[in-house]
Backbone:
C-alpha cells in the first residue's frame, strides 16, 4: 500500500474508489494534467518569488560565513 501524499483534500475517484494513480491501493492525490495559461503564469510568478527568497537566504548565509 502506498504512503498517502495528500495535498489539501485533492483526490480522484476511480472505478474502484479513491485512486492513487500508481498501484490502485486507494491512497493518493488528484493530479491535473492541463492548466490554463493564467494558472501557469501565476505558478511561474510564485516560483520566481520563491527563488528570489532562496537566493536572498543563500547570500545572507554566505555573508555570515565570511564574517567568521
Residues:
Amino acid at each position: 500500500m502506498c504512503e498517502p501524499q495528500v495535498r489539501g483534500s485533492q483526490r480522484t475517484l476511480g472505478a474502484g474508489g479513491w485512486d492513487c494513480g500508481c498501484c490502485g491501493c486507494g491512497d493518493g492525490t488528484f493530479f491535473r494534467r492541463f492548466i490554463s495559461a493564467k494558472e501557469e503564469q501565476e505558478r511561474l510568478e510564485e516560483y520566481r518569488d520563491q527563488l528570489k527568497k532562496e537566493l536572498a537566504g543563500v547570500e545572507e548565509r554566505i555573508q555570515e560565513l565570511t564574517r567568521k
Q: What stands out?
A: Residues 1-31 form one domain.
